[in-house]
Write a structure and sequence with these properties.
Elements lengths: L4 E5 L8 H13 L3 E6 L1 H12 L8 E5 L10 H7 L4 H10 L5 E4 L3 H12 L9 E8 L2 E6 L9 H18 L6 E5 L10 H10 L5 E6 L11 E3 L2 H26 L3 H9 L1 H11 L7 E4 L4 E4 L6 H16 L2 H21 L5
Parallel strand pairs: 1-2, 1-4, 2-3, 4-11, 6-9, 7-8, 7-9
Antiparallel strand pairs: 5-6, 5-10, 10-11
Helix pairs in contact: 1-11, 3-5, 4-5, 6-7, 6-12
Amino acid sequence: MSTPRIILDAVGGDHAPSVVVAGALLALHEFDLEVILVGPDELVQAELTKQLGHQALPSGLRTVHASQVIGMDEHPLSAIRSKRNSSIVVGLGLVARGEAEAFVTAGSTGAAMATAVLELRRIAGINRPALATPFPTRSGPCLLLDVGASAEARPQNLLQFAVMGSIYAERVFGLPSPRVGLLNIGEEESKGNPLYQEANQLLRQAPIRFIGNVEGKDIPSGVADVVVMDGFVGNVLIKLAEGMATNLLDIVRTEIRSNLLTTLLGAGLLPVFRRLRRRLDYAEYGGAPLLGVNGICIVAHGRSNALAIRSAVRVAADAVKHSMLDRIRDGLSETAANVATAQSTEPPS
């Protein structure tokens, strides 16, 4: 297979372009891929000169000029309509025209999702893409989706999310048979509102390893590899978890520094705290894929550092190398056939 070509939004994120360029250089040093930095040429070239000095550009790196930047606080649809030469619109346009296989940004999530739908189009049969994010658990990362692409969903959407999430976990996480759960208020099939009750029945007909309903308290224990929910619930869940992790680490730090004895004891536990922080660090996991569009689109955290950018580029390249889009299309077709067969054999009510 040819080397993956990854478009990287050079001006996306709170600390761009410095951390984006640094992350691109890290990725090029560690992985077999090409990176195309998209952004205002003068700004990008100045940052490359600052970081590389008199060294030549790495062979796998090139730049594409995009004169405009979409801010985090801009309305997504208004911004992409008025800023057709923004890094997000230009970058995803390159993917749509086949000049690259994947797009990565730490910029506006809303603008990236809206542009991906407009430029890349949805996969046939998908009417609502899903934003997925890795979540640290006791046994490794768990993929949560949808975490904010669509505030509303139908049972068929949750079914498609489950299939796409299962394929992503298999291909990118390297799990041969991912366990897929449906987030709910109880484990029993009858639990939840009509949306989740009907989705439970549909997921049982899908060609995935569906383990049934999963409660929120069980996600951190690693009971499932993929957990499916609507975007409203998912967005609340992931922001709550992020806030709790940050506050927990802050509380522990404050308590350790509260007196001399705890400070001395805490010093001995520093290696443990460093490992804990690493397991909870979003920079290690590489960003959130937008699943359901005809292209690889990875949205990294707005506060991404160079390591997080490097990880997001790696995830994008892995998705390309493992033919994730083709597998998702095949999985959705198989699921539709299974559901149709199951419905045709149901006895009349």
